[in-house]
Amino acid sequence: MIDSFRLTEAAARKYQRHSVPAMFGPLAEKTVDLLRLKPDMHVLDVACGTGALTRAILKALKGRCRILGTDLNQTMIDVAREMTPDSPHNVDWLAADVTDLPLKDSGFDLACIQQGLQFFPDKPAALHEIHRVLRSDGRLCLTCWKEISPFNDSLATALEHHINPQAAEKARAPFSYRDGHVIQALLGENGFAVKRHAAIVLHRRFADLGEQILALPIEKDLRDAGEEKTRLVIDTTSKLLAPYDTDGVFIVPQEAHFFEARCR
């Protein structure tokens, strides 16, 4: 199952080029605004991708801090290392499975998971491992999408109509774990006490809808289906998103849960 989450170098670079500026970069900045970072912290960024949240944290940290970004994909780690400027802080990167981190116990003050929890096949094992590497008073910050984005829902509808249900399921997959009560219960069952639960609202811009659709994991499904069906998917998605059209640019809301929890 884990192999299905491994990405090629091309996929990692496409993620950085399209998804980070459109969504994960702005989400990282809003997350950092809520984090209440302290000087001289040791921070672990889990499922860091190409490092959007790591870089946002580096900008905000004071003092002499240590931050480690870890991801299952070595390709993501390689791009993250390239994209991160020199810093006075101690910054490092590690490709590792979240359920088996090669890290010592109690080494971090704060762990963050930005839009990764929903993709962990064994969520309790991942949270137990994160709890292990946090100090006794350590904090966990995580974000998960709160609602299915109108963009993804429109795209999934178009894929169901023109491609197949499996492709539509991929479009909705990032929103598969969005019940706030379920997430809070999961944290409570695995060593964390939730101290704060808030919402983060983004407004995602689609200036070139077709290009951004083809930057998603459903690209292969579209390529296999051919140019005509790909065009139909893009056109149908565009029609469904008409209420969000502002002078030729689709501006679509996307809402996320923000949880802050402490070890107990």
Automatic annotation (TrEMBL):
It is an enzyme of class 2 (transferase). InterPro entries: Methyltransf_11 (IPR013216), SAM-dependent_MTases_sf (IPR029063). SUPFAM superfamilies: S-adenosyl-L-methionine-dependent methyltransferases. Keywords: Methyltransferase, Transferase. The keyword Ribonucleoprotein does not apply. It comes from the Bacteria. GO terms for molecular function: demethylmenaquinone methyltransferase activity; S-adenosylmethionine-dependent methyltransferase activity. Residues 44-141 form the Methyltransferase type domain. Signal peptide: none annotated. The keyword Cell wall biogenesis/degradation does not apply. Gene3D superfamilies: Vaccinia Virus protein VP39. CDD domains: AdoMet_MTases. Pfam families: Methyltransf_11 (PF08241). Its EC number is 2.1.1.163. This is Demethylmenaquinone methyltransferase. It comes from Falsiruegeria litorea R37.
